[in-house]
Amino acid sequence: MLKCRKMSSGNSSESVSFVLAAYGNVGAFKYPYFIIILFWYVSICVANAVLIVVIHVDRRLHEPMYILLSNLCVNEINASTSLYPLLLSQMFSDSHEVTLPWCFLQMCCMYTTASAEFCSLAAMAYDRYISICHPLRYNVIMNTERVFMLILVVWMYSFLSFIFSFSFIFRLMFCGNIVNNVYCDHKLIIRLSCSVSVHSFISDIFFVLLSIFIPFSLISVSYMKILAVCRKTSTENKQKAVTTCTPQIVSVSNLFVGCIFHSTDFSLLAAHVPGEVNIILSIYLLICQPMLTPFMYGFNLPKIRQSRTMLLFKRKSISLFSKRVL
What we know:
Elements: E1 4-6, E2 13-15, E3 17-20, H1 30-57, H2 64-81, H3 84-91, E4 97-99, H4 100-133, H5 138-141, H6 144-166, E5 178-179, H7 186-191, H8 199-230, H9 235-263, H10 275-282, H11 284-300, H12 302-325
Helix pairs in contact: 1-2, 1-3, 1-11, 2-4, 2-6, 2-11, 4-6, 4-8, 4-9, 6-8, 8-9, 9-11, 11-12
Keywords: Cell membrane, Disulfide bond, G-protein coupled receptor, Glycoprotein, Membrane, Olfaction, Receptor, Sensory transduction, Transducer, Transmembrane, Transmembrane helix
Protein name: Olfactory receptor
Domain G-protein coupled receptors family 1 profile: 47-297
């Protein structure tokens, strides 16, 4: 099962593929696992796609806040696609091998979308700050052109933060290939390198600084200023601010819970926590966050709720009219 190639500089060998060892315990449960994972992945894609379609179809929702929300939903689909297709394909694999290029591609997609998640929420928090604290200048500052430029900056920044943080992995030589997880976890992959480097510690700090700390600082400043303004406004304006800001606060809180689970080394607790629980906690962010976003925004924001209802009843009325004509 171990695929290696000889290095010209010694007797060590460099792995050219990784074996995802966590699938070895699936056994007879692979069929129910496959159905559950496929159902959840399709549900995530459909839920986020419905929200994107509702925003696209209803011209009243062609506002900066909802355009940024559409971008967030696109990111949820991208993040899910970085994990679930691999899970599905590995369920019926005998070797559970993933080649180096595919492993690096998955890491790139997962960490770019993770960074984009925080940055998108930071952009949405800035939009709410301008809307609530500077309402008269809102249409000037947050015009459509600037919103799309902001989205472009979010994606470029997220991709570059991954490249700057983890590009050193591409140059590592690996002397092992057993990854005790269901996906290409960069921490486990770095441990398989032939030489332990200080870069691994620095890269984690660098990625946390660029992708989590800076966006979270912008989010915190935005909401602190929103809170300061809301204390001086009417009850009605406070209620509007709470309605629009609550989904973002819940999303940020859930992201931090997921980051704690992801960064915790559960191998130290292997004797007390079942292996299945360890795996679920390590991918908690990609299980809950992609489904939390469409439901939090789709059911909490009044305009989206109204547009979804109108679109649904409009389609039903067209269908009934067609049947009567026929």
